[in-house]
């Protein structure tokens, strides 16, 4: 399985700050927003990752993440000239994906919860074994803002809607999707919505029509932030700060994950700490190095 992280978009909901900087570089507490989806992909053990970015942001992404070799991963980049919808990311990634299955993440979504990676790995195994699509739902108070899934009493999917005016449920489909390789062809046949975008909901609806869509609800004990608005951006940062201060452990620390996965050595991790040693982030990595002495 390969991973795609969609990090394009214009960030209009975070204006005026995103007039000058891509939102995915903004800090969620003590690290760039983009570290959080990247960290989950790495925790799943996926090493081939494609970032879909705007042309004007490519150099900054390359400066921040390079080609991933310093983390023991392979990072590639694909340009999205205009934000034409989430499903377009699958189309743009066709050459990168090849014959593989897909983990598709939105760059502004923050997740946290007990056994989250275990649940994601179950989705991955389901796709690799049986194909289809596997997505996640989360209860929200403002379903008009999201793609919504309607379920029956047995948890089977009845319908999907994109930003409905009269939502049939309060369960939003979050920005983490697992697809078999058929998603590429499905996405290429998606027609623009009334908003003029290629909706990811349309891809999911096609899987539903084929009887190949699974939805797992993330209940109590899980946190999900769509950090694309000022309020949710602030809430995500406060949440991460609270968890890290209480536990002494960092969320989304990509260097630590690379080391724990055995993708980089202790010496390589030590080298990565050098430009960071005056920061709390760098001191945290130094402590990890010391603990392995």
Automatic annotation (TrEMBL):
User: Which part of the chain is the Nucleotidyl transferase domain?
Assistant: 2-241
- Catalytic reaction list: dTTP + alpha-D-glucose 1-phosphate + H(+) = dTDP-alpha-D-glucose + diphosphate
Top enzyme class: transferase
Q: Which cofactor does it need?
A: Mg(2+)
The terms under GO molecular function for this entry are:
glucose-1-phosphate thymidylyltransferase activity; metal ion binding
This enzyme's EC code(s): 2.7.7.24
Name the keywords, alphabetized.
Answer: Magnesium, Metal-binding, Nucleotidyltransferase, Transferase
Q: Which InterPro entries match?
A: G1P_thy_trans_s (IPR005907), NTP_transferase_dom (IPR005835), Nucleotide-diphossugar_trans (IPR029044)
Q: Which domain of life is it from?
A: Bacteria
Gene3D superfamilies in the record:
Spore Coat Polysaccharide Biosynthesis Protein SpsA, Chain A
Q: What does this protein do?
A: Catalyzes the formation of dTDP-glucose, from dTTP and glucose 1-phosphate, as well as its pyrophosphorolysis.
Q: Which family does it belong to?
A: Belongs to the glucose-1-phosphate thymidylyltransferase family.
**What's this protein's name?**
Glucose-1-phosphate thymidylyltransferase
């Amino acid at each position: 399985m390969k991973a795609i992280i969609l990090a394009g978009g214009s960030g209009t909901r975070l204006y005026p700050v995103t007039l000058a900087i891509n939102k995915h570089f903004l800090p969620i507490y003590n690290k760039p927003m983009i570290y959080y989806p990247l960290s989950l992909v790495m925790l799943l053990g996926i090493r081939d990752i494609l970032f879909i970015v705007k042309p004007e942001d490519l150099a900054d992404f390359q400066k921040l993440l390079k080609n991933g070799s310093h983390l023991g991963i392979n990072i590639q980049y694909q340009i999205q000239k205009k934000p034409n919808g989430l499903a377009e990311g699958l189309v743009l990634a066709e050459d990168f994906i090849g014959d593989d299955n897909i983990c598709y993440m939105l760059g502004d979504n923050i997740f946290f919860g007990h056994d989250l990676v275990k649940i994601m790995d179950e989705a991955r195994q389901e796709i690799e074994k049986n194909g289809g699509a596997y997505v996640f739902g989360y209860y929200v108070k403002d379903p008009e803002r999201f793609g919504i899934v309607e379920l029956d009493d047995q948890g089977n999917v009845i319908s999907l809607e994109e930003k409905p005016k009269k939502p049939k449920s309060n369960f939003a489909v979050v920005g983490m999707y697992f697809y078999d390789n058929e998603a590429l062809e499905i996405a290429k046949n998606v027609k623009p919505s009334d908003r003029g975008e290629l909706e990811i909901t349309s891809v999911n609806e096609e899987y539903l029509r084929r009887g190949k869509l699974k939805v797992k609800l993330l209940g109590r004990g899980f946190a999900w932030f769509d950090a694309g608005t000022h309020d949710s951006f602030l809430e995500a940062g406060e949440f991460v700060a609270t968890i890290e201060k209480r536990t002494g452990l960092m969320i989304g620390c990509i260097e630590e994950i690379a080391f724990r996965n055995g993708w980089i050595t202790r010496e390589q991790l030590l080298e990565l700490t050098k430009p960071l040693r005056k920061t709390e982030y760098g001191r945290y990595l130094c402590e990890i190095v010391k603990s392995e002495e």
